[in-house]
Design goal:
six-stranded antiparallel β-sheet, 44% helix, TIM Barrel, binds ligand C2E, alpha/beta, binds calcium ion, eight-stranded mixed barrel, single chain
Length: 514
């Protein structure tokens, strides 16, 4: 699988897992809030209807009491009792009118005195209650009529619809309530109709009075639960969002923190955290920059920049060094593409490889792809292979090195002097460059015996007629000594430390002080 695909997949997987964790509080919270809102609205609807029923019962109790007081007056001449009817209206808080009936005729009313109208007993539910949209006096105003009868005498008490409307409004702030008497329905808007308000209701509830023939029904309009959640649960929404963000971020951080060093390396590879730093190499003969060596760094999200000796040995053991080097070469290509033209033709870019790279021919394609990013001859790619990791010659290595050579890739033996590569070994792999280990360069400053060892190494290297690079050059004295002995290429803190691409290109703009 190509490295980039692996990396994108790993990151996508981590991101999607963290996203799932982030929405979890909301996913759990929404049903919880819904359940809470539903329970609340349901009990509110029930309570509103029950309270309304109780209050209407009380109004009718009052009407019933008033009726009981005036019923004995029925049958008496209107002019004798009209005043008493009016005083009863005055003491009864909800009654608007009190009317007397005798022998099926309404003959006396508190409003107009003597009167004459047939009583329509059939329209009273249970002979007791009638809800009217209006009457002769107030045709547009609902009225509830309570009837009490004994023999052929009766009393009708009119309760003003406004009392009922107030009752429905006060009890049903957000619940829509209706009072039903038989087939007549009164809503809080004051309208009386012969059918209940149409449409489905949420948390529909209906309560009946045990004393009078009426029902109170209530409920919420559809979507009320969601609306309620939106209007009243902002703190909860915010809390779940914050919890989600924290959980998501926490899970992302945890996913970045791998459990074992091996998993950590794999994760870092997927996250593309291995980046190149570059250390310039000087040509001591002409005093120009000759090239760079690429040195891998781990840009760790919490540890910062990790040096290679802390992770390369493990990467080699786990077989991760090959994909890591591939990723590194991609970075180098990106860093140098578009800027290579500013550099001298044939500018050297060194990349450290290991024995693991020499077990198959994959490296050929990687080097070919790398070089294809530059104009022909613009860049010379050098593969540095440490002398401490001797590779055994096989058909594969033979083909590998032959094809690399054809591509113009040069091979360097790194840390020369610390291993034991024989002349035969150097010939077998047709080595181009020897990089003398910095432990020998440090001997310039020490006593004559050690210096003698360095001189031997330099003699041997010179006799092999290979390009020589002195590593770890830290002082002007070392520079002078090495130049005097014909070491052409120098690399070390004396000239420049390893650095990222941006400062490198700044450094390369001015010539080195040799
Ligand atoms: P190396 O290939 O011998 O790289 C040279 C090391 O010497 C670098 O250490 C560099 O920073 C250090 N150095 C350069 N000039 C001086 C100097 O004047 N004085 C001193 N004291 N040190 C100097 P670094 O970058 O820590 O790398 C250590 C080793 O890690 C490298 O040794 C190499 O063996 C390995 N390494 C680094 N990058 C890679 C890589 O991409 N692939 C592989 N396989 N190994 C790598
Ligand atoms: Ca090296
Ligand atoms: Ca070295």
């Amino acid at each position: 699988m190509p490295f980039s695909t692996l990396r994108t997949r790993g990151r996508a997987r981590r991101l999607s897992t963290s996203l799932a964790v982030a929405v979890l509080p909301l996913l759990l919270g929404i049903p919880l809030m819904y359940w809470q809102a539903a329970t609340l609205l349901e009990s509110r609807a029930a309570k509103s209807a029950a309270d309304s029923r109780k209050q209407l019962d009380a109004m009718l109790d009052d009407a019933s009491r008033a009726a009981g007081v005036v019923l004995p007056l029925a049958g008496q001449p209107c002019e004798d009792v009209a005043q008493k009817l009016r005083s009863q209206v005055a003491v009864s808080p909800f009654s608007r009118s009190v009317n007397l009936v005798a022998d099926g005729l309404i003959y006396c009313t508190s409003l107009m005195g003597a009167y004459e109208q047939n009583e329509d007993t059939a329209s009273y539910v249970n002979g007791q209650l009638r809800l009217m949209a209006g009457n002769l006096v107030t045709p547009d105003r609902a009225v509830l009529v309570y009837r009490q009868a004994a023999g052929n005498h009766g009393v009708l008490i009119g309760i003003d619809g406004q009392h009922l409307i107030n009752l429905l409004r006060i009890n049903g702030q957000d619940v829509s309530l209706q009072i039903a008497v038989g087939q007549s329905w009164l809503s809080a808007n004051g309208r009386v109709s012969d059918a209940p308000a149409n449409g489905k209701r949420e948390y529909a509830v209906e309560v009946s009075s045990s004393r009078y023939p009426f029902q109170v029904s209530g409920g919420y309009s559809p979507g009320a639960t969601v609306q309620y959640m939106q209007d009243h649960y902002q703190p909860q929404w915010l809390l779940f969002l914050i919890l989600g963000a924290l959980a998501g971020a926490g899970s992302y951080r945890l996913s970045l923190r791998a459990t074992s060093p091996g998993t950590a390396l794999k994760r870092a590879l997927e996250a593309d955290e291995f980046i190149p730093h570059y250390q310039p190499v000087v040509n001591a003969e002409n005093g120009h920059w000759h090239g760079v060596e690429t040195l891998m760094r781990w840009q760790h999200p919490s540890e910062g920049l990790v040096p290679p000796n802390q992770f390369i040995p493990l990467a080699e053991r786990l077989g991760l060094i090959v994909p890591m080097t591939r990723a590194l070469m991609r970075h180098i290509r990106e860093d140098f593409a578009g800027r290579a033209e500013q550099l001298p033709m044939g500018f050297h870019i060194g990349v450290n490889i290991t024995a693991a790279h020499c077990r198959n021919l994959q490296l050929i394609d990687e080097c070919r792809d790398f070089l294809a990013a530059f104009a022909p001859g613009q860049i010379t790619l050098i593969l540095e292979l440490t002398e401490r990791q001797m590779i055994t010659p096989t058909e594969i290595t033979e083909q590998l090195f032959a094809e690399l050579r054809q591509l113009g890739v040069r091979i360097a033996i790194d840390d020369f002097g610390t291993g034991h590569s024989s002349l035969a070994y150097l010939r077998e792999f047709r080595i181009d460059v020897l990089k003398i280990d910095r432990s020998f360069i440090a001997m310039v400053d020490s006593h004559a015996l050690s210096r003698h060892l360095l001189d031997n190494i330099l003699d041997l290297a010179t006799r092999l007629q290979l390009d020589l690079v002195a590593e770890g050059v830290e002082s002007a004295e070392q520079v002078a000594y090495l130049r005097q002995r014909g070491v052409r290429f120098l690399q070390g803190f004396h000239f420049a430390r390893p650095m990222p691409a941006a400062p490198l290109f700044d450094t390369l703009r001015t010539p080195p002080t040799v």
